Every structure is written in C-alpha cells, then in structure tokens.
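Annotated sample (chain length 444).
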Amino acid sequence: MTAIVESALERETMRKVSMRLLPFLFVLYLFNFVDRSNVALAALQMNRDLHFSSSAFGFGAGIFFIGYALFEVPSNLILARVGARRWIARIMISWGILAASMMLVRTPMQFYVVRFFLGVAEAGFLPGVVYYLTQWFPVARRARATSRFFIALPMSGVFGGALGGYLLGLDGLRGLHGWQWLFLLEGLPSVLIGFSVLWYLTDRPDDARWLQDDQREWLVEKMKIDHLASGGARRMSAFDAIKLPTVWILAAPYFLMLTAAYGYTFWAPTVIRDTLHTSNSATGFVTAGIACVSMTFMLLHAASSDRNRERFYHAGFGGILIAVGFAGAALLSQPILRVVFLGMVIIGCNAMLSPFWCLPSTILGGEAAAVGIALINSLGNLGGFIGPYAIGFFKDKTGGNTGAFLVLAGFGVGMVILCVALKYTTLSGTSASHASVAAVTDVA
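Output written by the structure step:
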C-alpha cells in the first residue's frame, strides 16, 4: 500500500472512530461530572435549608472520593475483563440512581452515606474510559482524542452551571426545594443514557462492524504496532503494575492537581456569590463563563502537546496557572480580579489532564494498563476529599478562604516541580526496564 493510500485510509478510519466514539463518551462524562459536582451549586440552598456547617458540607462533598478511591482498581480490572460496554453501562445506571437520591437527604450523616456510595458506584468510569481510548487511538493522536473526551469537564461547568442555576429557581415548585429538583433532574438522565451504552459502544476495534474491512484491519494492525513499540509490550501482570514505582510516582502530581481542582469545584460557586454578591442563578452563569474559557484553552493546549510530542512541561504548565490563580484569589481584594484569578485555577487543572493521561499507557499495556491507570486515578482522587474539606475547615476556623487558598497555591507549585522532575529523573530511575523509559521519552 502506498504512503498516500495509507494516509487516506488512516484519515478516514480515524475520522469514523472519532465521530462514533468521542461525542458519545463526551456526553457520558458530561453527565458523570455534573452528577458528581452539582452538590456545589445545591449547597447555595441546601446548606441553609438543612443547617449544614461549612465543615459538614466539605466533609460530605469530599467523602465521595474515599468510596471512589477504594473501588477504583477492582472496578477497572473488571472492566478490562468483561468489556467497557457492559461495565460502563452498570456504572452509569447505578450512579444515576444514587445521584437522584441525593434529593432525599436530611441530615449530615445521610449526606455522607449517599455521597460515599455515589463514589463507590462511579468508581472506574474515568480510568475505564481512558483505558478504552488507548484501545482505539494511536499514540500520536491520543492527547487530542483524550482532550475531546475531557472537554466534558469544562463543558459540565457551562451546562451544569446554567442548568443548575435554573433548577435552583424552581424552589417551592410542587413542594420541593430547588436543590431537590437539581439532584432529581440531573440524576435521572444518567440512568437512561446508561442503558444506551449497552447497544452503542463497541468493546474492541476487532468488533467494529461499523468500519469497512480495510479500515478495521488497518486500525487493528496499527494498535498492535503501537503496543509493541511501547512499554505496554512488556509482559506484566496486574499485580506487577501495582508494584511498579513509576505508577505510584505518577499519581503524585495528579493528586496535587485534583486537590486544587475539587477545592475549586465544590467551593467556587459559594466564593463567587459571596465575592460578587450575585444571585444563585447569576452565580451559575458566571461559573459557566469561566468553564467556556477553560474549554477553549484545554483544546489548544492538548493540540500543542500532540504537535510537539511533549507531555511533562504541558502538564506542569497547568500547575503554574493553579498556583497563580489561588494566590491571586487569596491576596487580591478587588472582587472582579479575585474571581478572574480564581477562574485561572480550573483553567490550569483542565489543561493538565490530556498531556498527563497520555503517559501511563506508554508504560503499561493490557490488563496491567487498566490497573495502573485506575491506581493513578484512585490515589489522585484522594485529593478530592482533602481539597473541599480543607477549605470548609479553614472557613469555619478563620471565617475566610485565604489560608486554604494559599495552601492550595503551594500544591500548584509542587505539581510544577514534580512534573519537571519526572521528566528528567524519576521515570528513568524507577521504570522497570530501559524499554519502558524509552517509550515514555519518545512521546514526552
């Protein structure tokens, strides 16, 4: 096959794969993150109606990630064995039911229990989809493909902020509080979409009957070549992946980023409302506007990472934005500037995701990749407990957010240092073989 014919075949094949999978996975993640984070907007009314303290809300928002972290690795191991189609459907249906049931909480303990089991139900979704994308997209296209999935994160801020602000305005309709309508009407669609996963998703390129025979054969062969060229070609069991130091070290900058990200996610609406003195609906639209900027920057940043075939500096740049953003939000008194700098935090967090998640699949393959990705995500998501709780704790103790914001700014600095150090020292010193080091360096 000539290079010109192969190039045309590649373009058409990857266009079909992208159009078939990425919009659908985007919708799944959109509802996933809306259901995970809508408690932040609900808090504008819920904390008042249920008399929750800042510490109680922060603990309840964060305990989700304890359940999530505990079940992340076994969930992704099951996905690798039974296939993405059935397991992702199970995840979505169960989390949708629990997300809607948040409307029934009345006490802090009920809040903690439902949030914990929501984390259990959702465990495995994000690393499962990241692993799934590694089965369909060659390394050279992976950051862009991943970014088009991860763009659901900032889009959830646009969609969830605008919709959540509207639903809070239904306060009193048919005897329900606005925050109850929010949980109900944002949770049930996940159940319905979950059933659609069963007939829409295709587990492997070999089974893609929606591709022509030559397209399917090209993709299967291309993914085999990529697999052999990377560290994923090494024979490694799931247990070996857990023991690999590189996997644990990669979790460190991700942990710092998610601590900052969820500190922002669960407290930004409250901070923005109190800073700008906006209504609940207007607060939702402000968070949506920040998310639009974040979404645009995320796509451009991922394209730059693929174009330059560089991952570590691109991931570390997100840490710079996090540090500057939290420091500005803590130290500036002018309301508009404070909100602008706060917005830089989520822009930096989202920018880090695509280049970072290109790294694990270059080290691991097969079932080991599923477990390694899940372990990194599991350890990182413990930051989702620390960030919201730390801000709530500092707010109760000091009456403000300055102390917590400065600590989280330090986390951003730590993230930059780790990303740079990983590029030059840690990976080469802790990888299990020279082959895996070379594979990482090639794409980094």
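Annotation: Confidence is low (pLDDT under 50) at residues 426-444.
Annotation: The chain has 20 helices and no strands.
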